[in-house]
Amino acid sequence: MEIIDFEPFVKRKTIVVKSANYKQMDTMVMIIELGPHEAGLPMHIHPQQHETCEVLEGEADFIIADKTVHAVKGDRIEIPPKTPHAIKNTAASWLRMRDTLWPALGFEEELRELHGLVHEGKVTGYRNLKSRIYLSMLCLKYEDVHHPIKPSFKKMKLLASVGKFMGYKI
Fold this sequence. Notes:
By secondary structure, this protein is an alpha+beta fold. It has three helices and eleven strands, in the order E-E-E-E-E-E-E-E-E-E-H-H-E-H.
């Protein structure tokens, strides 16, 4: 199986276990590995997708709306569409979890494009303006997949416009 990694941007690896044939109807299943004390995506929502996370190894805090749920091996977290959420590995070891998204939509394609941007050196960190522009352009391209809470989707649209004006391409 192919590993989609995002290092050095973030210590995260994704293994696609099941791709979706019909992206509007089928599920996508991944194994996500998150490095020690590493955070996943900043707080975001999936406008149309239901997400299920099952911890296989390690432990994590899932921030879901306004509460934090600590999860350990065997725990399963359900995240309905339009629910703000984020995740943080709370251990000194790697977190490994099974992540299922339904419907898949363009999530796998977005991951693959992010992988490319990281390995081309276009995305190097959240604090880098160039990286934030590329991340905003990617987010806007896949707006049916997820919307950030902070920075706001409105700010991401503005940064994506700046990127297009400057000739950035994803």
